Structure formats: C-alpha cells, structure tokens
Design the sequence.
C-alpha cells in the first residue's frame, strides 16, 4: 500500500517534471499527443500508402512554412508577400550548390537558409524603416524580381524547363522524408516559439500592436522587425532546401505569389499570433484539398476558390482562426471544471 | 535691374523644380523617349504610349481606392480580367452575326458595345465587392485596416481567378482585332485602329474623370473623404455612398482598360496579374493616393517596359523596372511625386 503510493507519487513528480519541461518548450500535453500521433502515422494504414505519405510530407512542409509565416505576420504585423520567393531562393541556392559543386544537400540547405536570410536582411533593412504595407509590397516586388530572374537566367536555373536536383536519399520511399520534415517542423516550431516567448517576442507584439507606443517605451522597432524578418526568411530558405531535395525538380513556379497565398491562407485560418495554429490546421486542410483535387479532376481550381473564400470568411467573421476557437473551448472547459470543483468542495 | 532679378528668380524656380526627383525623372524619360525613337524606331514609342494610357487608367483606379478607402487592392488586376472576359463574351457573338450580315455602321459600333458592357459589369462588380466584403469588415473591425483589407483583396483575387478557370476554362479567349480597317499612317508608323482607339479612350476617360473629381460636387466629396474621413462626415457627406461609388469607379476603369486591350491581352484566368503588377509599380513609384501622379506614372512605366523588352530582351520587363523602382524608393520612399497622403501608408 505504502509502496504503491510512493511509486505513484514519484511517477507524479516525474510527470510534473516532464510537463514543466514541455511547458518550457511550449508543448502542451495535447500537442505532445498530436506529435506522437504524427510520428506513428506513417505506419498506420491507410497512411502507409506512398501517395498518402506524399501528402503527409507536403502537409508537414506547408505546416512548417505556416509557422514561419505567422512568426512575422502574427507578431510584427508585416506580411511578407514575397515569402515563396525567399523559399525558392533558398531552394535554388541549395540545389545549384548540389548540381554545380556537388555539395551535400545536408550542408546545402543550411547555406540556402543563410542566403535567404541574407537577402531577407537586406530587404528588411531597406523596407522596414517604413511602416506596414510598404514592406509587404516591397517584399512582393523583390519576390517578383527573383521569379523573373529564375525564369530568365536559363543558363543557370534552366528556367521553366526545370532544374533536376539530387535528392537527400537514394530511397524511393517517402517515409524517411516524412521523418526529416517532421524533425524540421519541430525545430522550426521550437526555435520560433522560443524566440516569441522570450522578451524579444514581447517586443515583437508591442511593435505589432502599436509601433508608436513601442518606440516610446524604448523598443527599437526597426531592429526587431529586421531581426524578425531575417529569421523568417532564413527559415523559409531552409525549408526551401528540403523542397528542392525532396521533389528533385525545381521550377520558377515555386516562387509564384499563389504559393505565398496558400501559406498565408493556412496561417490565417490557423490563427494569427499563435505560431501553432497554422501548423495544426495544415494537416487536415492539405488532406482535404488534395482529396478534393484528386477526386474532382474535372473542376481544376476549385481548391483554390476554397482557399480564397476561407481566407475572406475567416478575415471578416472569425479573425482569430482555429487558435481562438481552441482558446475559447479551453476557457469553457476550465470554467466548467472550476465550477464543478467549487460545487463538490 | 528689377526685371533681371524677377527673371533670375523665375529661372531659379524652374531650376529648383527640375532638380526634384520628379523633375529629374521627367527629364530623363523625355531623353529616353527621344533616344529610343531614334534608335529603335518610332514603333516602340507608339507601343509605349498606347499601353501607357491603359496603365494610367488602371493606376488611377488603384490609387483612388487607396486614397479614399485605404484599401491596397490586390484584386485590381482581376477587374481587368473581368473586363477582357465580358468584352469577349459580348463582342464575339456580335462579330459572328456581323460576318453573316455585314453592316459597316454596326461593325464600327460593336466593339464599343463590348467595352461599354465591360464598364458596366466592372462597376456592378465593384458595388457587390464593396457591399459583400469591405463593408462587412469595416462594420466589424477597423483595427489594422490597411493590412486586413489587403488580405481580403488577396482572397478575392484568388477566388476570381479560379472562378474564371472553373466557369470558362484556361484557354485563351481573344480576338485578333476589334476593327477590321486599314491601320492609320502617322509619321511613317502604322498604328492599328485598335491601338488608336484604346489610346483615345484612355485620354478621354482620364479627362472626364479628372473633370468629375475636380469640378463636380460628388468629386469634391470623394476628395474630401480621401483627405479626412471624420471631417467629411461632419459636413454631411454620406460615407457609405462615397465608398460604394469609389469602388465602382475604380473597378469600372480597370474593366474598361481590360476590354479596350482585349486585342493585346486575350482573356484567361491570370491575365490580370501583369496589369496588376504594373499598376502597383506605377502607384508605388509616384506615391500612393496621388491620382495625378498615377497618370504620368502609367506612361513612365510603360516606356520603361518597352525600352527594357527592346534593349535587354523579352521577359526582362518585370525584372528591370522592379529593380529600378526599388532603387528610386531607397532615395525617395514616399514616391517620386511626394504625395501628401503619405500618412495613410504608415498605418
């Protein structure tokens, strides 16, 4: 009797310790359960089929992008409208290093991240002195210029014909790739979550809400915004490296604005300023979209209409997205629990 | 003595104006026009002027909506697309009918029917979009309006592009020409009737629009709202009416531009993207909300693009102007013509 108690107490202490570690990392028990579910999903039928695995990889890639996107949009309130181009810049950097110099993709993708981050830094320094939408539009112009370059520098990028890129692994199976992108997704989440929950994140939020007030309280808006933008672009470039060495083919179309819109829609539906919202919604959403696309081939473009409508509806009627809904539920559950505890006590 | 000092102040004033960013740009573009006319032949010039008129129409609409409603409209190109589509759908059956029953009067008028239909549909669509989307958001939240309305227009653009694809498919729906007549000969350059009419339409429309904005009561009300919304409301201007009207005007202008350029831009889902980029180049280049500047800017950007595709190569006409605009904005972030509504940018 005594012994079982100590064991359960010890287990409880251990559990509490684990919980506090997870809490510090920004993972709730529910989040941990979802991560574990994702990790075993490739072995559960029907998700062990190659086509569904491919969807899973695609969803995880979009999820990681949505996290990076929300890091800027949800915090400093600047929409990087050239996001896809920064992703593509990293992808092309890594791919060209592998093709022309035979550098391993594992190194190349970090070089790609550095390159994208550097480009993001310059764009940020030039545009983020000015406010809000100006930076969004200028980032878009930079993106258009990059897209144009990728299309026109046929000698280097092979233009619209597509650049074939060596992949990470020799295997034809998608499962190992899923674990690579899952780890990348987790790293993206943990790093960005760590930044936003530190005092830097506080400064981001202050700038996003009221830039004058932030400046008056001694926060240097330009510094923090450029920092944020650079980090976002670096992550975009890193994920671009994965894109290049997973799909094995790169076309300038990757940098197109419609790709940015896709990520943007998911980040917004997931919930601005939540970091996890977009990543959470990406999986069901991408599966739904892919299912729609493969079952309704006679109606091309329908899935994009849904993206657009969803973006409009969420923006107007429920600006907090899925994250707000979750917090609302959690609040209700918490209240109900407290209420019943009071009644019983 | 006195006269010479007056003269010298006038000279000084002229010099001062010419050395501002706007003055330098205009001088440079005049030089570029002359050089290109000599080197590349007058045809490039004609091309630049015709497309420039239409870019000006687009940019004026975009600038107006931003000035009055503070909406950076990303779906502006989609109204251009709607214009091309409507004009195609109206003009093609008419054209077919006229092939069987030739009539010289009708075949002169038929294209105008298409363009006018596009204008009407564009205006209607503008009203619908304002009522269904922007009004709804405005009623619920005005927080971070510029960014949120921008994202709404992004959604709208995606819906319209893919709606077109769903209903009419991705194939090119174009016409070789509106008017089957001999081209006009001007200084040894052949200008097709379509081009001449497009330019004429642009000039006339901009003139009418300008008169409307400057001289009529409603035009004044629109400008008042652009300057100060609260103040305009205080003197009894119906804000909702002005907003609906502005959106309708802007999208009607865009649709008209699309319809008149149908011979250059066959209608397909993403046909609006390029005009959208260009309208944004113009508007950012001259400074947002600056309607007069947008007119000049339209011609400037068209010239820049024509020169780029002639001297550097087709396909570069997006890259070079973008790079140049970014460079210019580094030194003059509020735009070439230093607009007074810069404050709106900064929200």
Sequence:
């Amino acid at each position: 009797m005594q012994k079982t108690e100590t064991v359960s107490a010890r287990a409880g202490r251990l559990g509490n310790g684990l919980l506090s570690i997870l809490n510090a990392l920004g993972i709730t028990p529910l989040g941990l359960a979802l991560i574990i579910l994702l990790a075993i999903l490739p072995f559960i039928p029907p998700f062990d089929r190659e086509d569904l695995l491919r969807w899973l990889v695609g969803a995880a890639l979009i999820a990681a992008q949505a996290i990076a996107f929300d890091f800027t949009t949800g915090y400093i309130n600047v929409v990087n409208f050239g996001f896809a181009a920064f992703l593509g810049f990293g992808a092309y950097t890594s791919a060209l290093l592998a093709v022309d110099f035979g550098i391993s993709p594992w190194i190349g993708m970090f070089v790609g991240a550095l390159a994208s981050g550097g480009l993001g830094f310059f764009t940020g320094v030039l545009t983020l002195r000015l406010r809000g939408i100006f930076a969004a539009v200028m980032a878009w112009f930079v993106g258009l210029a990059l897209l144009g370059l990728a299309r026109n520098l046929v000698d280097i990028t092979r233009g619209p014909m597509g650049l074939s890129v060596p992949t990470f692994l020799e295997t034809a199976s998608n499962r190992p790739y899923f674990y690579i992108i899952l780890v990348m997704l987790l790293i993206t989440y943990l790093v960005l979550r760590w930044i936003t929950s530190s005092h830097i994140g506080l400064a981001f939020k202050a700038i996003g809400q009221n830039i004058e007030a932030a400046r008056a309280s001694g926060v240097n808006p330009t510094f923090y915004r450029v920092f944020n933008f650079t980090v976002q672009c670096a992550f975009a470039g890193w994920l671009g490296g994965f894109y290049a060495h997973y799909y094995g083919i790169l076309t300038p179309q990757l940098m197109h604005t419609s790709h940015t819109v896709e990520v943007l829609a998911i980040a917004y539906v997931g919930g601005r300023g939540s970091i996890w919202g977009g990543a959470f919604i990406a999986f069901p959403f991408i599966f739904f979209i892919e299912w729609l696309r493969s079952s309704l081939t006679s109606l091309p473009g329908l899935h994009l209409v849904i993206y657009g409508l969803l973006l409009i509806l969420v923006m107007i009627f429920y600006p907090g997205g899925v994250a707000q809904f979750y917090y609302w539920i959690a609040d209700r559950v918490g209240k109900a629990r407290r209420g019943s505890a009071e009644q019983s006590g | 003595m006195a006269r010479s000092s007056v003269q010298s102040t006038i000279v000084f004033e002229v010099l001062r104006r010419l050395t501002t960013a706007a003055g330098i740009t205009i001088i440079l573009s005049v030089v570029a026009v002359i050089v290109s006319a000599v080197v590349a032949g007058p045809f490039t010039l004609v091309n630049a002027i015709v497309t420039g008129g239409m870019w000006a129409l687009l940019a004026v609409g975009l600038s107006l909506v931003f000035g009055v409603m503070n909406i950076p409209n990303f779906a502006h190109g989609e109204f251009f697309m709607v214009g091309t589509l409507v004009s195609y759908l109206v003009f093609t059956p008419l054209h077919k009918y006229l092939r069987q029953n030739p009539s010289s009067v009708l075949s002169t008028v038929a294209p105008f029917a298409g363009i006018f239909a596009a204008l009407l549909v564009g205006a209607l669509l503008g009203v619908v979009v304002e009522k269904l989307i922007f009004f709804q958001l405005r009623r619920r939240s005005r927080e971070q309006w510029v960014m949120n309305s921008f994202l709404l227009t992004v959604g709208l653009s995606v819906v319209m592009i893919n709606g077109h694809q769903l209903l009419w498919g991705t194939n090119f729906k174009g016409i070789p020409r509106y008017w089957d007549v001999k081209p006009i000969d001007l200084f040894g350059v052949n200008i097709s009737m379509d081009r001449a009419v497009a330019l004429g339409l642009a000039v006339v429309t901009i003139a009418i629009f300008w008169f409307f904005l400057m001289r009529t009561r409603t035009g004044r009300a629109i400008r008042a709202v652009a300057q100060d919304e609260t103040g305009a409301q205080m003197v009894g201007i119906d804000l909702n009416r002005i907003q609906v009207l502005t959106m309708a005007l802007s999208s009607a202008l865009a649709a008209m531009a699309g319809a008149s350029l149908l011979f250059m831009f066959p209608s397909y889902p993403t046909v609006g993207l390029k005009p959208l980029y260009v309208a944004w180049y113009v508007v950012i280049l001259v400074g947002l909300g600056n309607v007069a500047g947008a007119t000049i800017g339209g011609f400037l950007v068209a010239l820049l693009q024509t020169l780029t595709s002639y001297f550097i190569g087709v396909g570069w006409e997006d890259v070079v102007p973008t790079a140049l605009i970014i460079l210019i904005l580094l030194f003059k972030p509020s735009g070439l013509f230093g607009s007074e509504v810069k404050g709106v940018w900064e929200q």
